[in-house]
Design brief:
The structure holds two protein chains of two kinds. Chain A is of the alpha/beta class. Chain A has three domains: about 240 residues, 3-Layer(aba) Sandwich (Rossmann fold); about 70 residues, no CATH class; about 240 residues, 3-Layer(aba) Sandwich (Rossmann fold). In chain A, the strands form four sheets. A six-stranded mixed sheet of chain A has the order 6-7-8-3-9-10, sandwiched between helices. A six-stranded mixed sheet of chain A has the order 16-17-18-13-19-20, with helices on both faces. In chain A, helix 5 crosses helix 6, helix 6 packs across helix 7 and helix 16 packs parallel to helix 18. The longest helix of chain A is centred in the last third of the chain and has 18 residues. Chain A is globular. In chain A, about 50% of the residues are buried. Chain B is mainly α. Chain B has two domains: about 200 residues, no CATH class; about 90 residues, no CATH class. The radius of gyration of chain B is 25 Å and the shape is globular. Chain B starts with 20 loop residues before the first helix and ends with a helix. Classes of the chains: A alpha/beta, B mainly alpha. The interface between A and B is large, with 71 and 56 residues.
Amino acid sequence: MKEPAIVFKDFSFRYKTQKTATLHDINLEIYPGQKVLILGASGSGKSTMCNCINGLIPFSIEGEITGSCRVAGHETKNSSIFKLSNSVGTVLQDSDAQFVGLTVGEDVAFIMENDMMARKDMLPKIDENLNMVGMKDFVDHVPFNLSGGQKQKVAIAGVFGNDVRILIFDEPLAALDPQMGMTAVDLIDDLSQDEDRTIIIVEHRLEDVLYRPVDRIILMADGTIAADVTPDELLKSDLLQQHGIREPLYITAMKYAGCSLEGNENLCDLNSLRFTEENERKLKAFFTADRAVKDETEREPVIRFTDVAYSYDGRQNVVEDISFEIGRGERIAVIGKNGAGKSTAAKLLTGIIRPGKGKIEVCGKDTADMTVKEIGEQVGYVMQDPNTMIVKDLIKDEVGLALSLRKMPQDQIDERVRQSLEACGLYKMRNWPVDSISYGQKKRVTVASMMALEPAILVLDEPTAGQDFRSYTEIMNFVNKLNRDYGTTILFITHDMHLAIENTDRAIVFSDGHVIDTNKVYTVLSNAETIRKASLKQTSLYLLAEKLGLDPEKTIESFIAYERTVKDA
Amino acid sequence: MNNRFVINYTPGPTPFHKLTGFTKVFLFLAMICAIMWTFDIRILIPLLLINCAEIVSMKPNYKPILIVFAITFVTVTLIGNVMLFAVSPEAGYNNVGAEHIIWQGSGSHYISKEFLWYIFVVFIKRTASFSSVMAFALSTTPSEFASGLNHCGLPYKVCTVVSLAYRTIPDIANDFVNIRNSMMMRGLELSGRKASVWKRLKNYVLLLIPLIFTAFGKVGNIANAMDLRGYGKNKKRTWYAEREPGKLDRIIRTLTVLLFAAVIYYVIRYRIIDPWPAKFWCPWLARDEVQHVNTLDTIKILQWFRNR
């Protein structure tokens, strides 16, 4: 057996600013050539553990270490972050922030520049590193013109110093659309083929990571290791529910169908999975049962785009021939890859930009005659990062801001703020400072401040990006409640197909500035053509249907219909 | 994101673009010193021409350059000169040292040949510094700027701040636009028509809070990313952006050294040892025709020391 690459022994760590230890009693050995997934909800200590390996702890982030952590033969606390950076490469979650160079080449060169490598020695190495991630032709590109996936590839090329044997990926899928996410998982898998290389992936999107095999899964909970198992063992156990991790959709489907998880070969990989005969029979029976998603009655339209086109530079249209209708109370998933026109359409809807051609109506009124402020009373737009929206110190002031800007009398403001905060479950916190609440709660505050205007439509931009399953469920339950109780029309701009399946009725799919599909979610997700054009990913339900020889559309519809009855019960 | 205005992030194709960062920074510093220290049209005009030649050789997009030039220079100079004429027509006498009146208006308004000469030289001086800044900005990427400064002796940690600033400006601008849009939808008046200038200004201040918070969040991330890639490991570092100097680099570096030497010689010879009595050299004034010497002029002070 080879020397382990990473050894934690009775390891604990306490941040300087905190009273209790964030990590405690960690005992762990990771061997060269292993590909390890560290799984856990937010705050479980998984990122802290990574930072202990790459040396940010204790060298940039102060705190108290007890026990031992040896990485590539160095006891980290006696080493230095620079020594560790020779053997450990870390790809951070935010590949945009990680991009420090002004061109791709310069960014990859950064580690070599700091190592005082002569420029003529850098050039072939930069070439080699970029070639490895398939970005060789982009050496002179600037970061502003790269997609999230491309930036991440550059970030990977940029952490390869002299002798990097350990690669850490901190939430590599967080900022990517489904297809880019698959590419990233593929690339990480390619890198893991080198048997001297150790790969550590930190993620909570289990199903997406399992698209390629991993050797071990370490489940973190409350700063300790809750389980250290193979993927198959994990999926069979009930650890996922216990620790707030979303299980793969096909596993959910199997559970709905009453299948036993024991006895199936390769449970973690749907492609090579072999069901027991009994399970196959149960699944087929489940999916062919007569079940359909309730078709809603006619709804009056609240949004209508008629033949809309828009161009930023006056020459080339970024969106064209956009026509669709959304009914009151509908929940819509707006999907498509980055740059396909989703956010341009959202900006057009809110009146921030105005169509070069065509007509946009909101609640029956042409928006051309309305100011941004007036449209804002009908359409509430919630940005991805709540920190970019919050301007006041106290929660109630933040929620009442839009009303006081409209010069509403104070007693009416108080009443509306109370209603809105109650709807969002924040009324008890109304006098709290905004700084003191969690990210998920901030998100609710931003939604509450939109709800105060009693809009007919709520647009949520990537509402669940960077959230763990618990926080995701919380936000979704809350938004669905608004939809049910107040009839608010909800538009999700999202890459998350799980979200679309579970929480929306219909999808509007963008590709290259056009709307290519406006069908029911299950129809969209079973249309191979749409999936390819919009850079989506086939959900595991689709693959499951193919495996069982069933019609994907019916299968997904049946799943959704069953799930809604479970949830409503 | 449109970055095609003046900041280039990638080196351009012409020979002047391809000079190393150090050559360009060094040339720029020498130019600026030469322009700053002299009021002599015999030096300013050749420098202006050299800079214009550099700009032309880079085949830039002239439109934005001319727009900036028109706005900042032509208008400022025009307004400034009209004001100067109204308030202090004796500026020519004060700086050039004599007065030949060519037009006498009512009261204290008049125009002298020297006044026109004065505003002409000041215009040339401004234009020369503008062209020098432009030539530098057009030819140099922020990374070359940083590496050039480092080669001129500035600590590299200061220099990386320069290139990091350029790296983050477009991101921050982007954040700002997003924050502004979301606040406009909530009803904050930021565009004209409905709110007064003062009100709008106050509203813009409100936007700074989320902007600063998001920027701070980024700072922490960037610092970690840099630490993890060995930033600050050694006392020195090399630069990807600093190419190996070519033949043209050596020629221009030599010429720059000569320019620098010539300017220092000029300053010592014509402004200290045997100075022209007035601040501005003027072709039609002989030495003994200069009547007025600005008492606060450094030359005067230096002369005083010399005469002791």
